[in-house]
Amino acid sequence: MTSAASHPEHHRISPVFLGLVAIMAVSGWAVWYGWADVTGVSVFFFVVAGWIVSLCLHEYAHARSALGAGDVSVGAKGYLTLNPLRYTHALLSIVLPVIFVILGGIGLPGGAVYIERGRITGRWKHSLISASGPAANALFAGVLTAPFWLHGVHDVPVAFRSALAFLALLQVTAALLNLLPVPGLDGYGVIEPWLSPAARRQAEPFAPFGLLIVFGCLWIPQVNEVFWDVVDTILRGMGVSELETYLGLEYFRFWQGEPQNVLLP
User: Fold this and answer.
1) Can you tell me the distance from the alpha carbon of 90 to that of 73, in angstroms, rounded to the nearest whole number?
2) Which residues contact 191 (CB under 8 A, 6 or more apart)?
3) Is pLDDT above 90 for 7?
4) Could you tell me which residues come within 8 angstroms of residue 69 by beta carbon, excluding any fewer than 6 positions away?
5) Which of 9, 53, 151, 187 has the largest count of CB atoms under 10 Å?
6) Please, what sign has the CA dihedral across residues 133, 135, 140, 144?
7) How many helices (H) and strands (E) does the chain have?
8) Helix, strand, coil shares, percent, the chain, to 5
9) Burial class (CB in 10 A: 0-12, 13-18, 19+), 137
10) From the candidates 9, 59, 204, 258, which is the catalytic residue?
11) CA distances from 242 to 88, 222, 234, 249 (A)
12) Are the CB atoms for 29 and 23 separated by under 8 Å?
């Protein structure tokens, strides 16, 4: 008899996810070869599709870690299929993140998997489940920036190079924001198992507002400056320059017109 955790349908990759990968691939091909009068439109679709793919990978990592730790319910919930419709609320997880990207180039953490924590024993397992999501963003950022830190971007078209850089920036910002030890975010989930019951009770009311608190803090100029300095430092360590991420955002905002006659080193 097939168990809920091992049922083939619970592990089959969703056609929705495969469609997103296809959009990312086709739009990336269009950016590379300049197959469009407006390259920025292709960059827009490449980045948006890539962002939703990364959201799926983030939530899948949570679910896969939970399955390994003992929560077999994640299979029946569809979390192992990489289907974004299983993780997301259309407004909170897709529309709002795209708006934040347009406004400020920040990867807004989105999506959710509901883990039955009572099935899992051991504080380290709970911490690992929370940490696995941001780790997926960091790994994806490493893959996207591989051409940069492997010094293989010199012959890459500027638009494609910039799109990769901007999508990588979104992964880095999402990972950093998620790792903050604020109730409601993954960083708090990492440390929560190690807190006293009293401390957990005090923090619990703030969980629904954690992300709002973080973005409120980012409006403080000094905090915003430190945050972006950290992001830029990480990206420079991956071989990505600030100019490349800036150009990626400019291409993404295709309705404002595309950068002209740009030369990158």
Assistant:
1) 23
2) 127, 181
3) no
4) 120, 122, 125, 126, 128, 129
5) 187
6) positive
7) 14, 0
8) 70, 0, 30
9) buried
10) 59
11) 31, 19, 11, 11
12) no
9 given a catalytic annotation? no
Is pLDDT at 143 greater than 90 in this prediction? Answer: yes
Taking the C-alpha atoms of residue 179 and residue 190, their distance in angstroms, rounded to an integer, is 8
- Token pair in block for residue 28: 């990336």
> What's the rounded Cα separation, in Å, for the pair 189 and 210?
12
Give tens-digit pLDDT for 30-56: 999 887 667 889 999 999 999 989 989
Sequence letter at residue 37? D
**pLDDT single digits (tens) 204-262:** 998 888 888 888 898 899 999 999 999 999 999 999 999 999 999 999 988 887 776 56
Task: Please report where in the chains the tokens 């999402």 appear, as a residue.
Answer: 174
Identify the pLDDT of residue 2.
Answer: 45
- Identify residue 164 by its one-letter amino acid code: L
pLDDT at 108: 72
Largest CA distance in the chain: 63
Asked if residues 60 and 89 have their Cβ atoms less than 8 Å apart, the reply is no
Residue with tokens 């996207």: 144
- Give the whole-angstrom CA distance, residue 54 versus residue 172: 11
Helix ranges, 145-253 (H) = 146-149, 158-178, 186-191, 197-203, 210-218, 221-237, 242-252
The encoded tokens of residue 67 equal: 């399955």
pTM: 0.91
